[in-house]
C-alpha cells in the first residue's frame, strides 16, 4: 500500500489514485527492497530503488532511438492508469524487426533511454530483457517482474500500432493474467478493438507524429533531432556517431 506521505502519492490524478487505492486489498507488510527487475545502481547507473505495493507500467520497445513520443506516451499512460512508475523495457532482440533491418546494439539503446529519463523518478529504464539475452518476449518479462514484485500490479503499456498486433504475441493467456493493458493512441493508427479478455485502460495523448524510423533517416540526411529527442540523448547519438551509416 502506498504511504500517504510518499512522494509518488502527490503525482498523477488524485481521484484516480484514491480510487485505485480503495479498490485494492491492503498490501501485506512491505518486503525489504530487492534489486528488482535485475537493475542495480552498480550494474546500471540509472537504476533507482522501487517500493512494493505499487502500480507498475511496463513499456517495452526497441527505442532505436528513444524520442519524445515515447516519453509522452509513458506520461499519459501513467496518468490514465494512476501508475506509480513506468519502466521503459529495452528489447534485447526485437524478433519482429531484426529480419528487416540492422538494430542498434542493445547497450547503446539502453544508454539512450537511460539518458532520456535522467532526473525523472517516475520513469526508469529496465535492462531486464538485455540481461536475459536472446529474443525478447514480453511474457518472459512479465513473469520475471511478477515474481520480483509479488505485491505490485503490472500494466503493459503499448501504442495503438502494437495493440493491433497483440493477437500475434506469444502466450496471450499468460500476458492477460499478469497485466492490465494500457493503450496509448498513435497518429495514423486507429485504436484497435482489443481482445475483450484483456483488462484495458485507454490513455489519450496529443498526436505526436514521431517515429524512430523517421529519426534514423533524419540523422542519415543530416536533419536535426532537436525537440524530437531529449537533448541528453541527442548528445549521446552524436558522441557515438549513431545512425549516420546507411543501413
Ligand atoms: P520504429 O519506427 O523503429 O518502429 P517507434 O517509434 O515505433 O520505432 P518503438 O520502439 O517501436 O518506437 O515503440 C515502442 C512503443 O512506443 C510502442 O508501443 C509504440 O506503439 C509506442 N510509440 C512509439 N512512438 C509513439 C508515438 N509517437 N506516440 C505514441 N506511442 C508511440
Ligand atoms: Mg515501432
Helix fraction bin = 25-40%
Task: Encode the helix/strand succession as letters.
Answer: HEHEHEHHEHHEEHH
CATH class reads: Alpha Beta
Q: Could you please say which CATH topology applies here?
A: Rossmann fold
Number of helices: 9
**What structural class should be given to the helix and strand makeup?**
alpha/beta
Ranges where pLDDT stays below 50 over 5 or more residues in a row are 1-18, 27-48
Shape field: globular
The total count of strands amounts to 6
CATH H-level homologous superfamily name = HUPs
Question: What would you report as the Rg, rounded to the nearest angstrom?
Answer: 18 Å
Attribute tags:
247 residues, alpha/beta, Rossmann fold, 6-stranded parallel beta sheet, 9 helices, 6 strands, disordered N terminus, binds adenosine-5'-triphosphate, binds magnesium ion
Please describe what this structure looks like.
The protein has a single domain (62-240), classed as Rossmann fold. Helix content is 33%, strand content 14%. The protein has helices spanning 14-23, 68-81, 106-116, 128-132, 138-148, 160-163, 172-178, 212-221, 231-240, and strands at 55-61, 85-90, 123-126, 153-159, 179-184, 200-203. Helix 3 packs antiparallel against helix 9 and helix 5 packs parallel to helix 7 (172-178). The termini are far apart. The structure holds adenosine-5'-triphosphate (ATP) and magnesium ion (MG).
Amino acid at each position: 500500500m502506498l504511504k500517504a506521505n510518499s512522494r509518488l502519492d502527490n503525482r498523477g490524478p488524485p481521484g484516480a489514485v484514491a480510487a485505485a487505492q480503495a479498490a485494492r486489498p491492503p498490501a501485506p507488510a512491505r518486503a525489504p527492497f530487492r534489486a528488482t527487475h535485475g537493475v542495480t545502481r552498480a550494474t546500471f547507473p540509472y537504476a533507482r530503488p522501487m517500493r512494493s505495493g505499487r502500480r507498475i507500467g511496463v513499456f517495452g520497445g526497441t527505442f532505436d532511438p528513444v524520442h519524445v513520443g515515447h516519453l509522452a506516451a509513458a506520461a499519459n499512460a501513467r496518468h490514465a492508469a494512476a501508475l506509480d512508475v513506468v519502466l521503459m523495457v529495452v528489447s534485447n532482440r526485437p524478433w519482429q524487426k531484426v529480419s528487416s533491418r540492422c538494430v542498434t546494439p542493445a547497450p547503446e539503446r539502453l544508454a539512450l533511454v537511460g539518458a532520456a529519463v535522467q532526473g525523472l523518478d517516475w520513469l526508469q529504464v529496465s535492462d531486464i530483457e538485455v540481461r536475459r539475452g536472446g529474443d525478447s518476449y514480453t511474457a518472459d518479462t512479465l513473469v520475471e517482474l511478477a515474481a520480483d514484485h509479488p505485491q505490485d500490479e503490472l500494466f503493459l503499456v503499448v501504442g495503438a500500432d502494437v495493440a493491433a498486433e497483440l493477437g500475434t504475441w506469444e502466450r496471450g493467456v499468460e500476458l492477460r493474467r499478469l497485466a492490465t493493458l494500457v493503450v496509448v493512441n498513435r497518429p495514423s493508427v486507429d485504436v484497435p478493438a482489443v481482445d475483450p479478455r484483456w483488462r484495458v485502460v485507454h490513455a489519450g495523448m496529443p498526436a505526436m507524429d514521431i517515429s524512430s524510423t523517421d529519426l534514423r533517416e533524419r540523422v542519415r540526411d543530416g536533419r536535426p533531432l532537436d525537440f524530437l529527442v531529449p537533448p541528453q540523448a541527442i548528445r549521446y547519438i552524436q558522441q557515438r556517431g549513431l545512425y549516420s551509416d546507411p543501413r
